[in-house]
Amino acid sequence: MKPGIHPEYKEVKVTCSCGNSFTTRSTAGRDLQIDVCAACHPFYTGKQRIVDTAGRVEKFRQKYGLNK
């Protein structure tokens, strides 16, 4: 990196709405508030809802008389 042209890279505390907090480095220069983190995001917690796309495809095929 060239000296003197990049913003200062400081340690900041990140706090989630679920109460989880951690420290990271950022050029923001202030503590951050976030809505979703890895501790509460459905993808990471295993509580993700799976959309029934197969049922939708079958309904489309029946509606328009298409065969596989």
Can you characterise this structure?
It is built from two helices and three strands. It is of the alpha+beta class. It has a single domain (10-64), classed as Rhinovirus 14, subunit 4, CATH 4.10.80. Strands 2-1-3 form a three-stranded mixed beta sheet, with no helix packed on it. The longest helix is centred in the C-terminal third of the chain and has 12 residues, at 53-64. It is elongated. The termini are far apart. The mean pLDDT is 82.
Secondary structure elements and their pairing?
Layout: E1 10-16, E2 21-26, E3 32-34, H1 42-45, H2 53-64
Parallel strand pairs: 1-3
Antiparallel strand pairs: 1-2
If you average the pLDDT, what whole number results? Answer: 82
As for the number of domains, it is: 1
Query: CATH topology, which one?
Result: Rhinovirus 14, subunit 4
Briefly note the structural class of the backbone.
alpha+beta
How would a textbook summarize the main sheet?
A: 3 strands, mixed
Q: How are the strands of the biggest sheet laid out side by side?
A: 2-1-3
Give the N-terminus to C-terminus distance in angstroms: 56 Å
Number of strands: 3
Beta content: 15-25%
- Poorly predicted runs: none
How much helix is in the residues? 10-25%
CATH C-level class: Few Secondary Structures
* Order of helical and strand elements: EEEHH
Helix tally equals 2
Coarse shape: elongated
